Structure formats: structure tokens, C-alpha cells
Prior knowledge:
Elements: H1 2-37, E1 59-60, E2 65-68, H2 71-84, E3 88-91, H3 95-108, H4 116-136, E4 152-157, E5 160-165, H5 172-180, H6 190-200, E6 205-207, H7 209-221, E7 226-230, E8 235-237, H8 245-262, H9 266-294, H10 296-299, H11 302-325, H12 337-345, H13 348-362, H14 369-386, H15 394-419, H16 428-439, H17 443-454, H18 459-465, H19 471-479, H20 481-501, H21 505-514, H22 542-562, H23 567-575, H24 583-593, H25 598-602, H26 614-630, H27 637-653, H28 664-682
Parallel strand pairs: 3-4
Antiparallel strand pairs: 1-8, 2-7, 3-6, 4-5
Helix pairs in contact: 1-9, 1-11, 3-4, 3-6, 5-6, 9-13, 11-13, 12-13, 13-14, 14-15, 15-16, 19-20, 20-21, 20-26, 20-28, 21-23, 21-26, 22-23, 22-24, 26-27, 26-28, 27-28
Amino acid sequence: MNKKINISKHLNTLTNNYLGISKIFIFIMFSLLIVFIFPKTSKFKYEYQKSKPWAYEDLIAPFDFAILKTSKEIELEKFDIIKKNKPYFVEDIKTKDIVKQNFLKDLNSSALMKDSQHKKETIEEVNKIIDSIYSKGIIQLPKNFSEKSLNEVYLVNNNIAHTKLIHDFLSIANAKSFIDNLKFKNIKNASYVKKLIIQNLIQNIVLDSIATKNGFNSLMNNISITKGMIQNGERIISKGELITNDKYIMLESLKTSFEKQIGETNFNFYAIFFGQLILVFTTMLMFSLFLYFYQKSIFYDNKKIVFILLIIYLMILITNTVIKYNIDYMYIIPVLFVPILIRAFFDSQIALIVHVVMLTIIGLLVPNSFQFVFLQLVSGVIVIISLLDFKHRARFFITVILIYITYCTIYLGLSLINEGSIMNIELSNFLLLAVSASLLLFSQPLIFISEKIFGFVTDLSLIELTDTNNKLLREFASKAPGSFQHSIQVADLAEEAIYHIGGNGLLIRAGALYHDIGKMFMPLYFVENKVMGINPHEELSSIESAKLIISHVTKGIEIAKKNNIPDIVIDFIRTHHGNSVTRFFYAQHVEQYQDISIDEEQEFRYNGPSPFSKETAVLMIVDSLEAATRSLKNPDSVAIDKMVDDIIDKQIEDNQFDNADITLKEINIVKKIIKKKLISIYHLRVEYPH
């Protein structure tokens, strides 16, 4: 016996050590993964905002650095280049000869000029006109240029670009007008000749698209991102001085130069890495302690911890990627995915703390983190409050609208404080916030995917499980109608009881509907399914009967797993009898054999475990009471009251609720509610005359 106890102790010690080591490993692994994606540049030690006074001592430039242009200034320069960009053209010297040849060909095919001498004179006259037109040149501008906005072009000759006024050339329209206004002295059929000239006109000043593109790119690439220098030792800003737009640009330029220089040495790289590691480890330690003291069910479940840390990591990774790509897109990051996903599977408390932990780490990444973190923190609280109930899918759409309104309100307030004027607010950020809010609509499919991968259950899944028209419950109703009706009654009573002591009503309803599905196996051996006058237990010993009754738990677990019922619902099947004794058959056996051993007593006990949550504890109470009430011969209020007290007291004596987070006060509340409901259901009715 002592050997068995020692082996059991060793096994428990090994199990506890394994669980402890695995948790440490999980937290360290995710902390390292987060630190590895952090940029290894030191953060500027000063926090500042535009239109606010400088809160530190006088700031002196520690080295020479360039003053950076703002993104607006660079964009204006780009726009100016686009506006003033000159296209490159080349002259096609063959065009003039082609036009002359085409004119001659058309003239020869005409029957109007039979006089050869006149024809010769006409050709000579026309060639002079063509020479005159093409000496000036015919140009046709590309669609993205217009004569109104373009005054000059480049004409390339021998690889040298010469600036030419656009009016130095003729357009096709101008050339046609010029020909129409000509007055021929010695040419007959002048209008016909003019027509032939006009229809053969083509441009000889042709766009060089490659040179134009290269010229444009060269101008764009040559835009300077700086606009001046600050010398080492020069005063940048004094203590208490207001941070104007110019001072703000200087501070931002110093910050950029500082972070670039600090990250260039290996010594600084390792120092920064170690500093980031300390901060992330500290945050993770605080989070793990919170879970240990306030969310033990999550702390002791590695799958839940991995899920939470994984989505935190993925959101930090997305944030870092967006900031690296373009910091201006910072507000498009859908940070609120995290509290929505956490709230879908856990309670509001854990959703809030996870949101705070994630924002604490993201605050180390984003520039001027206060504005971003404050915006996301307030919006996250709104999300958690608005999604207290996941039963209705339409609530997601309402929540998205509410989030966008919150985003806009908070961003407007912060911008007015920072900019000092509504005219200086970046309106494009409102569009980015709208995109960010809209992306949250994809949280529904993400919740579904997370359910399937991690085996979690949401309220929407529980609603589907409680549909009595689903295949498994219909089979249950068909094979064991009495047990099915008992389960429905238990579901109603349990949901009412849990509502008053604070718990998941949908979860306990689902658990109640499935807790007895094992009775589909040999249903006639259970009293509620018995056919009148037939008792199959008469042919069995009390031990055999007890084993058969106990087997409905293991059979129920098998059926539930086969039908992909979630573990959280299967827990109700496992625990609804705890490790209690099948009292009727146990009493029968004692009456028959008087003294029985401890090993014999175990034959009459359920395998357990006993309830380990408020919901499973309430289901055990309600299941026992509802079944016992049916057996009362005179179910008046006194009998029901005594029966409820006796059964619950016996369960407490039997230590069935020791592992459940339910208090005696809550058990007493459940007692009162169940008594009231049972009396209203099973009270003796007045017999009416026929």
C-alpha cells in the first residue's frame, strides 16, 4: 500500500514539474519570438508633441545632422515635378519625304490633272509648301500632356536635348489650318490639292517615351529629403519652449539620425536586444502572474496559453511589418482583432488584460506611442463592452460602426491637442481608421478557424449545439424519449439557476441536453424509459445493474466524441455524477450481503471526476433533483423542500463540489430557485370532475 502511495506521489511530482517547465518554456519562447522581430535600434529617450512645451532641459545637438523634409514637402516637390515635367521628342527626318511620296501617289491616281506641265508645276509648288511646314515641324502631344499646362519640350538632336517652346511647332490642326488659308496662283483645282496635302500630313516631331520616362525618374530620384543642417553643439530647443512646427521637424530629424547611428555598432545591437528582452520578459511575467492568481483555468491549460500568446505575437508581427513598410499606414493595423478573438472564447476580464499586455509591447514599437496606444486602448474597451453577448451575428456590424465612431472621436480629440487647429489634421487617417474598422468584419471567419484548430467553443457554436433538431439529439429523443425529456427539463432548470449566480447559461444548457446521451445504449434499463410492468434489472445482480447504469457515462463520452461534440460539453457528461455511488443498487447489495469491503463499494461508484466548474456543479445538483422529484409519490412543497435539502447536503458531504468554483452562498441560491421551480412543475393538481 505504501509503495502505491509513493509511486503516486512521484507521478504527481513529475506531472507538476512537467507542467511548470512547459509553461516557462512557452512564455520564454514567445518572449524571444517577439524580441527577435523588434527593430534593433535604440529608441529616442525624449517624448514630445507638437504645440506642447519642451519638458526637458535645453537640448543641444550631440552631432551634425540634416533637417529632414516633411512628407508633405516631399509630396509637393513630386507634384511640382509632375506638373513641370517636360517630355522628350526627336525629329523623324524621313517623314517629309514620305509625305511627298504619298501626295504624288494620290495625285497620279487622280484623273483631274492630265496636263503634264501643270502637274509638274503643282508638284513643285506643293513640295515647297511641305518643306515649309516640316521645317517648322509637326508635333502631337501625348494624352497626359496638354498645351495649356505645357509650354516647353525637349528636342533631342545628336544626343543633346534642346529646350523648345511648344508654339515653335505646328500641331496637325494648325498645319491643316495653314494649308486651308493658302492661296495658289498657278494651280487649278486648288481645293482638291489642299485636300490631298492635308490627308497625307503626319507628325515628324515624335515622342521619345524612354527618354521621357528616364528624365522623369531622374528628377524624382534627385529630390533631396533634407533641407538644411544643424551643427554639433547648436541649441535645438530650450526648456519650456513651445514645440512649433519647425522645432518639431528638427526634433524628428535628430531622432531619426540618433536611432540610425545607435544601431550601427554590434555593442549597441546587443545592448538594445538585452533591453528589449528585459521589457518583454517583465511584461510576460506580469501577465503570467495575473493568469495564475485570477485565471487559473487558463494558466493550467497550455493550449489556451499558446492561443493567447500566438495571437499577441501575430498582431505585433503585423504592426512591425506595417511600420517598416510605411509608418503613415500605422492606423490601418487591425489591433482590435485581438480583444475580439479573446472575448469570443474567454471572459471580458481576460480580453481586457490581454489587450493591455499587447498594447504595452506595441508601445515599444510605434513612434510617439501615447497617441496610438490611447486610441486603441479606449476602442478596445468599447469592443469588449459591446461584445458581451456573442449570440447575435448582427452585433458585429453594430460594433464595427461603434468602433469607427470611437476611432474618429478619439483621433479628432488627440489631433486637436497636438495640432492646435482643425485645419492641420491629417484627414487621410480617417480613411485608414475606416479600413481598420472594416477589417474587423473578418473576425467571424477567424473565430471559426480558431474554433476548429484549438477546439474552443463560442456562444454561436453552443446555440447550434442546443438545437434539438440536430441529428444527435433527434436520435436521442427517438431511442430514449424519457431520458431526452428529463434532459430538456434539466436544461431549463439549470439555465435558470446559473443565471442567478453568474455563469454561462448557453454552456450549461448544452451540457444538460447531452449529459445523458449514453442512455441511448440499452435505454430500457433506465427508469424514465421503462415500459409499464417490465423491469430488466430483475434478471441482473445489483453489481451488474450498477455497472450498466454507470456505463452510460463512458458510453455518452464515446457517442459525443464520435459526433464531434466539444470537450467543454463532454465535461458535463463526465462530471454529472462525479464519483458518487449508485445508491439504489448499493443499498440493495448491502441489504443482501450486509458487510461489504471497500473494493466492493468501488464497484458502485462512478469513475468521476467530480464537477470542476460552477456550471458542472449546478448541472449535478439539478440532474439529481429533477430525477428524484419524479420518484416522489406526493410531490407537495414540504416533500420537495426536504428532498432538495437532503440531496444537496449529501453531495456536499460526499465532497462533490470541492473542485468547483462555487460557494455555499451560491449553492443556497440554487436551492431556492430549484425548489420554487420544482414545486411549480410537480405540485399536486386539483382533480376536476369529468
